[in-house]
Description:
The chain is an alpha/beta fold. It has helices spanning about 1-5, 30-40, 55-65, 75, 85-95, 105-115, 180-190, 260-270, 300-310, and strands at about 125, 125-130, 135-140, 145, 165-170, 195-200, 210-215, 230-235, 240-245, 250, 260. It folds into 2 domains: about 35-115, Orthogonal Bundle (Muramoyl-pentapeptide Carboxypeptidase, domain 1), CATH 1.10.101; about 165-310, Collagenase (Catalytic Domain) (3-Layer(aba) Sandwich), CATH 3.40.390. Zinc ion binds near residues 118, 120, 270, 276 and 286.
Amino acid sequence: MASKIFQPISFIFLIFILLAPIGHAKRSTPSDKKSSSLDSFKKLKGCHKGNHTKEIHKLKAYLEQFGYLNYPNKTHATDDDFDDILESALKTYQKNYHIKPSGIVDDATISKLITPRCGVPDIVNGTNYMQPRGKKHKSSSSNIHTVSHYSFFDGNPKWPSTKTHLTYRFLSNVPSYAINPVASAFQKWESSTHFTFAQVQTNQNSDLEIGFFRGNHGDGIQNAFDEKSIAHASAPPGGRFHYDEDDKWSVEPAADAFHLESVALHEIGHLLGLGHSLVNAAIMYPTFSHGEVKNLDADDIAGIIALYNH
Ligand SMILES: *[C@@H]1O[C@H](CO)[C@@H](O)[C@H](O)[C@H]1NC(C)=O
Ligand SMILES: *[C@@H]1O[C@H](CO)[C@@H](O)[C@H](O)[C@H]1NC(C)=O
Ligand SMILES: *[C@@H]1O[C@H](CO)[C@@H](O)[C@H](O)[C@H]1NC(C)=O
Ligand SMILES: [Zn+2]
C-alpha cells in the first residue's frame, strides 16, 4: 500500500485503515461525528516513550496518514506501544507545528492534533515538506532577508510553461452556494500569479475539477475523507480538488463552519504545485479551524514564482 500512495500525479493521501464506517448510522451532524473521534487524542495527554495506552494506535494512524510514520513492521503500526519510532515521528510533527519537540503528547500537541486540516500529507516519501529549506530571498521593498517556507510536491510537478490558462468545472454534486466562493478564490490566484482561469460547463473537458465527496470516495484514487481531513487536491497535472461533504461549509465566515473560499485558496495552491508551508499566515499552512478566514500570503506567491521560474 505505502508505495502506491506516493505518486505525485495521483492524490497523495494515505488510506486510513479505520475507514469511516460505511452506511454509518447517520445523520448526527457531521461536526459531531468528527469531533467525537478526535476527542480520543485528549486521552493521550502526557504520554511519552514507554507508555502503553489504549489510544496510542490512533496517534500512530494519524501520523502515518500525514506522512510522519512508516513502520517497516506493520504490526507495530497498529499497536499501542509508544516506541522510539513514534517518539521520533512525534518530534518531527511538533517541529513542523512550532511546538517544543519534547516527544510528549502535551496540551499544545493535542490542540494541533484535534484541529481539522487538509488531507494532503506533510511528508511524502521521506521528504518533509514543512522543514525550512533555507531559501532566502531579498524583499524588493527593503533590505530585510526573509526565509520562505513554501514547498513543492515530490519531483516539483508543475504545469508546462505554455499552459498558463487553466479551465475548471464543477462536478454536478457541488452545491450552488459553493460556486461563487471557489470562483472568487480562482480570481485571487489569477490576480497574484501568471495564471488565468475560466469556468466551463459541468459536461465539458477541463484542466481542473471541483467536487464534494464523503468518506472513501473510491474513483480508483487512493484516498479517504475521515474525521481529520476537510478537503484535498492533487498535484499538477492531476487537477482534482475535493471538499469533504461531511463537513459544514459556509460562504460567509461562521463560527461553526469552514470558510469555502479560504479552503479553496489552499487547495488551488496544491493544484498549481504548492505543498504545505510552515508559515502560519500562509494559505498553504495545513490546518483550518471553523470560522478561520485566510488570504494569499507573500510566502504563497514566492512559492509560485520560485516553482515556475526555474
Ligand atoms: C520515492 O523515493 C524513492 C527513493 O528515493 C524513489 O526511487 C521514488 O521514485 C520516489 N517516489 C516518488 C513517487 O517520487
Ligand atoms: C506513562 O507512563 C508513566 C510511567 O513511565 C506513567 O506514570 C503514566 O501514568 C503513563 N501515562 C499514561 C497517559 O498512560
Ligand atoms: C513484527 O513484530 C512482531 C511483534 O513484535 C513480531 O512478532 C514479528 O515477528 C515482526 N515481524 C517481522 C516481519 O519482523
Ligand atoms: Zn493542503
